[in-house]
Amino acid sequence: MAKKKGKQSNTPRRKRFKREQRLESAKSWLPTYEGKNSFRGYRKRYGVDWPTALRELEMLRVEVDPAYREQVLRTVQEQAEARKRKHLEKAAELGSMLGIEQDEYFAFIVGYTPGGAPYGVTWEEWEALDPESDEDEAP
């Protein structure tokens, strides 16, 4: 009896590489790269985020302009904050529509103690439970 073939992935193999495999593959890819920005090219080719691309190309001894590095990392941080802010606004809007109380500390206020302090699910707990938390886009 012939062995059944498993489901084939549509994702290119190079985008499924682990760091060690990416570094080995990039050694032969870098000299042939003809684009202007090797960091952007590396990121797109291997499907990694900006900080990973910067770190791995530095491991391969590619020169990084410190100003460029800071700009990219700052942009990544700003985008993460913008996504979080948008997520919180969306949750607040949904909560107000459903009559759910929330504030800057609690995503869902269940009630109040006799002293008036709120208790419920914090934003950190809420985000840990939220399956739609995406942190994959960058410049």
How are the secondary structure elements laid out?
Elements: H1 19-29, H2 38-46, H3 50-59, H4 66-98, E1 106-112, E2 118-122, H5 123-129
Antiparallel strand pairs: 1-2
Describe the structure.
There is one protein chain. This protein is mainly alpha-helical and about 140 residues long. The chain is built from five helices and two strands, in the order H-H-H-H-E-E-H. The chain has helices at about 20-30, 40-45, 50-60, 65-100, 125-130, and strands at about 105-110, 120. It has a two-stranded antiparallel ribbon with strand order 1-2. Helix 2 crosses helix 3 (about 50-60). The protein starts with 18 loop residues before the first helix and ends in a 10-residue tail after the last helix. The mean pLDDT is about 85.
